[in-house]
Amino acid sequence: MGTTTPPRTLAEALRARGDESLAGLLRARPDLLNPVPNDITQLATRAGTRASVVRALEHLDRFALQTAEALAVAPDPAPYDTLLSLLTGDGLDDGEQRDDAGAAVTAALPGALATLREQALVWGEDERLRLVRTARELLAPSPQHPSPTGLGPTVAEATAGMSPGRLQEILAATGLPATHDPVSAVAALSALFTDRTRMAELLDTAPVEALSVLDRLVWGPPYGEVTPNPTPPVKWLRDRGLLLPVSTRTVVLPREAALHLRAGRAHRVPEPVPPVVAAAAERDPQAVDRAAAGQAFTALSTVEELLKLWNGGGPAILRAGGLSVRELKRVAAALEVTEPIAAFWVELAYAAGLLATDGETDERYAPTPAYDEWLDLSAQDRWTHLATAWLPATRVPGLVGGQDAKGRALSALGPELDRSAAPDVRRRVLALFAELPPGTAPDPETLLQRLRWERPLRSSAPSAEGTDLRSRLALWTLNESELLGITGRGALSAQARALLNEGEEAAAALLAPLLPEPLDHVLLQADLTAVAPGPLERPLAETLSVLADVESKGGATVYRFTPGSVRRALDAGQAAADLHAFLAAHSRTPVPQPLSYLIDDVARRHGHLRIGAASAYVRCDDEAVLNEILADRRSTGLRLRRLAPTVLASQADPGALLEALREMGYAPAAESAEGDVLITRAGARRTPPRTPPTPVPEGPPTPDDTLLGAAVRAIRAGDTAATVVRKDPANTASSSTTASGSLPRTTSAETLATVQAAAMTGTAVWIGYVNAEGAASQRVIAPVRVEGGFVTAYDHTADEVRTFALHRITGVAELAEDGEG
Length: 821
Hints:
Number of strands: 25
Strand content: 5-15%
Oligomer: single chain
Number of helices: 34
Distance between the termini: 16 Å
Radius of gyration: 39 Å
Helix content: 40-55%
């Protein structure tokens, strides 16, 4: 009773763990919680399923994975020293460099083994380490799935089914004593291959060409093809069992022989220490912060400009979903960026909830009501909104322009851009940035090497986009973080560090002093342009964007006044006097005379022609103007005819007629059915309220401490109910002892008496229960109250207080005391 018995199964090993250790397992492998296991046995079974083990292996770093791979080719169970020897070698070929590597492995192995134990991939004491069977099957060598270590099967596995005569020939060729027992023959051959001295003597007699063959096979793959008449070197190796047959044309180098040639190492290069992320450049931290802030401001301007393009209604959605290539090119041209960068800004606005579909029959993209709320925020708060939307987003703009697994093109805002690994890679890249001193830009290649070390299986997993999606995600993260102002000049900014560690408020507080203050003035010039020497206050910027066209952007924005832009302002309800007053109030220079003349000239002609619905009509008090329009060849397509001296009718719709006459050089105004001039206001179209797209999770979410605590209690309670020792029911004429696992059977009177006694003494009993749906179950309960035909009790199986109907209890039995049963 006082001794600790080593666990015989994974379930026993898990049962011996403390609650904190079980919670750590469920935190590391949250898929085991869906649903919560009934007991420890079910938890162990679920932890050994193929899908769960694959997921756990994918989250191991390279050295933990190398440790698991070494256990997969080690004897089962394996002592700690054997595992250590497989990772460091037997020490017979050590040089100074090998000694250093061995010391690093020795120091790192306990931590790697602790990780494997925590995730229930390895169990048992150090003298009997066991890799779970499913992991061994996934990592062990076979012709169909070669081992990651490059080792082949053991001598015993490779000679299974070999004739005794052939075994005798191999023993004779190697100088071993003959034996008629196949098991003894295999054991003798294995002993030879694992004996360093005798194996060295055997290889000393090998032809040089035979040693060359072994050199090609030793680090894998260990399989080779042979002809019916092999060359003398191959024949020499085959005769001595150094190459064993797998099929008529395939041979394999047995594991014991390969380990001798490798000096006992399972891996060519163990990697116990993660690669160091090297610094590519060291910059002034303040210069980094300023550069990042400047790019952050550019990001805000770009997103705002993008959504202004679609203010009155954006492009139509493709039938398969997403944005067409032509529309993406238009966005890129308008923003003066490349198409991949345009795709990033479009996807960022979508992820932030500022852009969505309008849900109409002719479905189009348009800004959402959240966009107007976003515009009302301060610049620093607008930036934190974009950054916090980018960090957890699973949509990957870098995939736009590529193809999916079926060869279909991937479009911006399309349905196939979600990659669940993106948020994890994004945050890990930024965390590696944050580990460097402020102002330090990391070397991208060493950064990728570090990521591959941390998730080697994920990095090598094939995908539709390539064999290393995580590396591509990391490179996209580097580019996107620079565009967004997370980094500046290749280094992480102070505001981004604050965003990652302290939250949005801290980041906004650091960013605010670095952003330029909005201006309330422009500089008007005689060439019909206005120069904004910095960002403008929002009301000024909105009015000026209607009155003038943006000609160039940069440190200063240049606006150009044209007849079309002035007419646009008049269409929006402004009068010439309003425009003169606006320019005079916001210009630090006098209003140039050419600009005043331009406004007055356009205003004098604006609305001289009126267009309404007939299908459409044109009316004008000046008959000469209408005569001029009718005589113009360019009006032929409008199919105009005179209805009255001052009215023309057209079969074109009012919008087309309006645009056609403007192209002919006139300045018509649209009018309502009542004859009033229609005022066209920009930015009127919004989608219904939309929520941002929900990121696609990568497997089950990590449970919080509350859920973990409840799950551990439930599993413990279920395990107690499943493993408790029970007394047989009383041996009366009305009761019968049932087989293990079946429900107890007692009479109603015996059931009532037993649960009443348990309620009085505070003891637990074992009951059989059939619920309203007819499902039968066994439960361990501690009755608290018995009245009205119901038993109120603490249910150890469900870890909660429940009420049971007495007539549904099939029987009851007391639990055995310690030492009984």
